[in-house]
Fold:
Amino acid sequence: MSYRIALNFEDGVTRFIDCNAGENVLDAAYRNKVNLPMDCSDGVCGTCKCRAEAGAYDLGDEYIDDALTEDEAQAGLVLTCQMVPSSDCTLAVPVTSTACKTGSTRFKAAVVDVVPHEDAALELKLEVTGDAPGFLPGQYVNIAVPGSGQTRSYSFSSKPGSHEPSFLIKRVPGGLMSGYLDSASPGQVLDMTGPLGSFYLREVKRPVLMLAGGTGLAPFLSMLAWLEEHGSGHPVYLMYGVTRGADLVLVDELQKFAERLDFFSFDTCVVEPASRHPKIGYVTQHLMPEALHDGKVDVYLCGPPPMVDAVRKHFTETGVTPASFYYEKFTPNAPASTPQDLAA
Structure:
């Protein structure tokens, strides 16, 4: 028996390793040629300290308090030299991937279909030959645009582990990727690098509020697909906001999730004043107090920079401090510049 351990590094790169039953994470990483930080490997120095964001494990009692205090252990900090997983786990590693002598995975996928959603977006459907790309729900990859020498970054909208990854891509007039996809043929092969990003679904320990702007819906579709398989003991609510009514895409997919998952519900809103949509205005204008659970909520937000700034300002003005707040900004028609800035 072995467990899959996701190592998310400070620079947003994620590597997946297999950890055997009874094996500690540090040894498993070295066996997989990932040099996690360490000095002593005996639970004395604390150099290998990371944060466990999901999964079950045992730390034993072979380490000293100077290396890991009781308060730190209660807060989810672990020593990888002592951590023995009993399930799949996700670890946040507080150093870069290059410092650990590793990097992003490269893989290829063939175009299966490109589904247009009027002038709003394109849905790119691919097929991977070989091993399915590992990623955490919400993460993204860099996709090389054939013949351009450039890449664009897009969040997976598909379930982790699928051999048929998909992406929701904003249609941009004159856009590099949009232009390519308008003439892409089935079977054409795309080069990808990833997974990347620190925006991903953590272990669900309290109610979840998801806020999507435009094609920022993509990572939430991946999260919902993961939750459908693994379940949730807490309510999950999504507010999906767009500029125009035509920008509301894949709402039928959200409706299917809502019908299948008793813990999930969603609403949509449109900014355009002339729209006949029931909810007119910005996401912040339709955030009901019950969705915020008096701050006892984990908030995930993916949208353009003005939306991210507006939501942060809204929380400040209303005095709401979420238990956790994860966000990702994207800028259409631009390559990613940081793990939190995507081209969508």
